[in-house]
Amino acid sequence: MSLLDPLFRQHLDRLTQRHTRRTLLPVRPEGAGRIRRGGRTLLNFSSNDYLGLASHPLLVERASDWARRWGAGATASRLVCGTLELHTEVEAKLARLKGTEAALLFNSGWQANAAVLPALFDRELLGGDALVFTDRLNHASLHHGCAAAGVRQIRFRHNDLDHLETLLAQRAGEPGTRFIVTESVFSMDGDRADVPALAALAERHGAFLFLDEAHATGVLGPRGMGLAALGEGRVDLAMGTFSKALGGFGAYVAGSRALCDYLVNRCGGLIYATALPPAVLGAMDAALDLVPALDAERDRLQAMAERLRAAFHGLGIATAGSSTQIVPAITGAEEDALALSRRLEERGILGIAIRPPTVPPGTSRLRFALSAAHTDADLETLVGAVADAWTPA
Ligand code: PMP
User: Fold this and answer.
1) Does ligand 1 have an atom closer than 6 angstroms to the CB of 110?
2) Has 212 been annotated as catalytic?
3) Which of the four CATH numbers 3.30.390.50, 2.60.40.10, 3.30.470.10, 3.40.640.10 does domain 57-292 have?
4) Where along the sequence do coiled-coil regions lie (predicted)?
């Protein structure tokens, strides 16, 4: 019993009343695209394992091999004695693939965003204020980074570059360094930013462009390494994760050598955290070896997503702006999303309801994420189950 238990319970009761209480649901993976829960095997359309790499033998083998050879832990933070040669090798491989001067590993995407943004908005670095322009649908970790830095975000309408340009123009006379912080693929709507236009806009306004590539890495862009390359050198910082299409864990920042060297000196989330362990690095290294060659899987993934969207539209289901492997089915009300999720589970499908505060109020949804490991038959099963379970408002 903790001192705050009565308050915790009251809070949880309020969440239950609003249909927004969450619980942890233990599952057991059964290979790519399948999951076992409550004694049943379900088709899994809720994971971010977009290429099915989480269970790929090369990742599993290299993770095991590197753990056997170099131990279970890195034993220290990067700046003490935790920078193994393995870290610098993976960073060099990643920078080569991203086409940047340098890259730096982080322990998670959340940690990268939460820690890198405050390091960039540092007054001593900038010699003044940061003016930070953010997409309204940015991921929670990007909001957290801005909040941790104590900056007030200037929010532009989702993916609306005209609005962003208007806001930049309105502030043209103000002192301060401009930053644009956005995502190349949005995690809950599955739509893409127009990276070439963003890069041109950043150039016109002298703004530093920060691009979160969590859901693009492995899936889109040259060699599947994200959309930042389309910015032709005008994306100042691309961050991404190894935890989604790359099948493992951890994250990266890719950019200039000076940027990475600065972060090594000034980014608390890198400086004060124990470095990633060899097993995680092994899975990263193997994923980087595989991903450039997976164009056929990437094409299939997008073709399946196109078919799923067409099927949903045929059923009258809105899919937000989806143009990627993430295809939401918008229900609007929280309880409708929960009910649909339950009905799908009865039909052997795992489709998790996403509710506020993860998405704006009134836009609850089931977020279906496709994987190249899904078969055409899996997709048909999903469409059939949704057609059966969906009750129009
Ligand atoms: N950025 C975005 C856009 C994300 O969707 C996520 C994961 N939900 C993260 C960052 C955090 O990455 P990680 O899961 O590696 O902590």
Assistant:
1) yes
2) yes
3) 3.40.640.10
4) none
